[in-house]
Design brief:
MDM2, alpha+beta, two-stranded antiparallel ribbon
Length: about 290
């Protein structure tokens, strides 16, 4: 996935951190992972009708290999078969007599799997295999979405855990907050709640052992710069109306049409893989 900005984007990127965060996410996470999975699923295989290797694998109920499959999926199954003969080098697989007869060898170097198994396989290229390829890539896709991609977006809305929401707002919580509002609430609470928080100086705070917070916050001292990270543990991302297209209207993808489906796909991945999902832990750490 290759993309670029027009010349008009330089001012926006300088004044707004959000486009930069999107760029980093696309360049270091989504793009490389999609390329890796596309390469992995570039070729799909199935067993020839009379393949002794295929018949052997299908006869073993504990082995799961759905057709069509990738070379890595076939390798995973062969590794399962050879586990009982492990000899210290996981790159060399040793087999018993039955599968050795299928493969014509009792020993296999994992990087040469297709050289040994190709006579048992048929290469699949059809619309049906393309559909399966896309489904498998979607299932295997795993990303680490930076929290800042959501917390730096002023349109993002967050749910604040009721225990903290009631404490920070003196029992007058709102349903949802922006992340900036959450940070402001917490800082104001730290500055003006001497029964809970002791101001060590302008930037350092102490959680008093007599505070209600002491049961859930598992540290005594913290710096105000740690508040945004601390809040990630007690807030949950709910919704944001903005998209990559609204943040970066001049963004273009090389060799891809700039249609809405691409931008919606990117947003879906951000929502799915953010760690700010609807779950809060029992305790808070720094």
């Amino acid at each position: 996935m290759t993309f670029s900005f027009s010349d008009d984007c330089s001012d926006c990127c300088t004044s707004n951190k959000l486009p930069q965060l999107y760029c980093q996410f696309l360049e270091t996470q989504l793009g490389p992972e999609l390329e890796r999975l596309t390469l992995e699923y570039e070729t799909l295989w199935e067993f020839k009708p009379l393949s002794s290797l295929g018949q052997y694998i299908q006869s073993r109920e504990e082995l799961t290999l759905m057709q069509p499959f990738t070379s890595n999926e076939l390798l995973n199954v062969l590794e399962q078969i050879s586990n009982t003969n492990f000899h210290g080098n996981r790159k060399i697989l040793l087999f018993d007599d039955q599968i050795s007869e299928c493969l014509g060898t009792n020993m296999l170097y994992t990087k040469k799997i297709m050289d040994v198994c190709r006579s048992h396989l048929l290469c699949i290229s059809s619309a049906e295999s393309l559909k399966k390829k896309n489904e498998d890539i979607e299932k295997k896709l795993k990303l680490a979405v930076p929290s800042e991609l959501l917390t730096q977006d002023p349109t993002s809305l967050f749910w604040l855990h009721p225990f903290y929401a009631n404490l920070l707002t003196k029992n007058s919580p709102e349903p949802l907050y922006s992340y900036t509002e959450c940070c402001t609430l917490f800082l104001e609470f730290c500055l003006h709640s001497p029964e809970h928080i002791q101001n060590v100086n302008d930037a350092l705070f102490e959680v008093l052992p007599t505070s209600k917070l002491a049961d859930s916050i598992k540290f005594t001292y913290f710096h105000k710069d740690q508040i945004p990270k601390l809040l990630e543990q007690i807030t949950r991302f709910i919704y944001k109306p903005s998209t990559l297209l609204s943040v970066c209207p001049n963004l273009t993808f090389e060799n891809l049409p700039n249609n809405q489906a691409i931008f919606l796909f990117i947003e879906e991945q951000i929502h799915q893989f953010t760690k700010l999902n609807p779950f809060t832990a029992q305790y808070v750490y720094v």
